[in-house]
Design a protein that fits this description.
Strand content: 15-25%
Structural class: alpha/beta
Distance between the termini: 45 Å
CATH class of the largest domain: Alpha Beta
Helix content: 10-25%
Oligomer: single chain
Number of helices: 7
CATH superfamily of the largest domain: FAD/NAD(P)-binding domain
């Protein structure tokens, strides 16, 4: 068997966590390679922010920035410092041996001394064609109230929230800061959310509930104008005008490719071995971003954990005697590698 190619540090993912980790790792001369994934119906390189038209709460952009532009800038910064990028998924991993063995979807398997998993989580959508289209185009459908709820397009409008768990209650309560009214649409006659979250939501004067209703279509061409509902008891259909729709039926972390070799929480997120660290149950494997964070799920917190993962990976590699790679070649002669000026 021919000898496999060996990498010092492999970063799997392409959201804020992955690109921040790549910037830190490249500046530490670890010669990282990022497997950013490939487009699919559910996910595209850049992660969930690629579905966000305007981001107003990421520091450094006083006028806001689109999710696409933010991801392009982060990637460009990582590449500028020498990060290599492959637009391919990692389909399988073998973490029972070291160096670890990683198998991309199409390319030959290779070895890695350390791995940062930053594959994020994908929002669970209802699955309606027009819902997905409007979400991708910024047409008034979102899966993150904290990310998008404050946008001018949603202010003083009647907004719908689909779901019945804690996330739906939290999203609905948050949206009352901006909406004229918030309608929780739930397909059953009781919520599965915790009592304290339900009581808080139902006590709010701006929130009302459409019980036993299921969204069967999102209405509107360029922007959402309403939804078509089906009564889950009678089967009767009706239309409801809305100025925005927030789907709050959970997220699924992208961990299937790990094959159960990394310990997960009860809800499927990567479990960290030590609080406030990014090391997983497998030494040499680190996790960053939404794949290990089911609480904050923000771009800035993901970027922060990407920084943490890169620093921990560097120290772990150093502790195990892995030599630094050659300094990367930068795109401009004026720039120089090195580690000065850390934030």
């Amino acid at each position: 068997m021919p000898e496999r190619n060996k990498e010092t540090l492999v970063i799997i993912g392409s959201g804020p966590a992955a690109w921040t980790a790549a910037v830190y790792a490249a500046r530490a001369n670890l010669n990282p390679i990022v497997y950013e994934g490939e487009p699919s119906r559910e996910m595209i390189p850049g992660g969930q922010l690629m579905w966000t038209t305007d981001i107003e709460n990421f520091p450094g952009f006083p006028q806001g920035v689109s999710g696409t532009e933010l991801m392009e800038r982060m990637k460009a910064q990582a590449v500028h410092f020498g990060t290599r990028v492959e637009m391919e998924n990692i389909a399988e991993v073998d973490l029972s041996v070291h160096p670890f063995v990683l198998k991309p979807t199409y390319s030959e398997a290779f070895e890695a001394m350390a791995v940062i998993v930053a594959t994020g989580a994908r929002a669970n959508w209802i699955g309606l064609p027009n819902e997905i289209r409007l979400a991708q185009s910024g047409g008034g459908v979102s899966a993150c109230a904290v990310c998008d709820g404050a946008l001018p397009a949603f202010r003083d409008r009647v907004l719908g929230v689909v779901g019945g768990g804690d996330s739906a209650m939290e999203e609905a309560t948050y949206l009352t800061k901006f909406a004229s009214e918030v309608v929780i649409i739930h397909r059953r006659d009781e919520f599965r959310a915790s009592k304290v979250m339900v009581d808080r939501a139902l006590a709010h004067p701006k929130i009302r509930v459409e019980w036993n209703k299921q969204v069967v279509d999102a209405l509107g061409d360029d922007y959402l104008t309403g939804v078509r509902l089906r009564d889950t008891v009678t089967g009767e259909e009706s239309e409801m005008p809305l100025g925005g729709l927030f789907v709050a039926i959970g997220h699924t972390p992208n961990t299937a490719f790990l094959g159960g070799q990394v310990e997960l929480t009860e809800r499927g997120w990567i479990k960290l071995s030590t609080p406030w660290r990014t090391e997983t149950s497998v030494p040499g494997v680190f996790a960053a971003g939404d794949v290990m964070d089911d609480y904050y799920r923000q771009a800035i917190s993901a970027a922060g954990t990407g920084c943490m993962a890169a620093l921990e990976a560097e120290r772990w590699l150093s502790h195990h005697g892995v030599a630094e790679a050659e300094p990367p070649v930068l795109e401009t002669a004026e720039s120089s590698p090195g580690r000065g000026g850390e934030a």
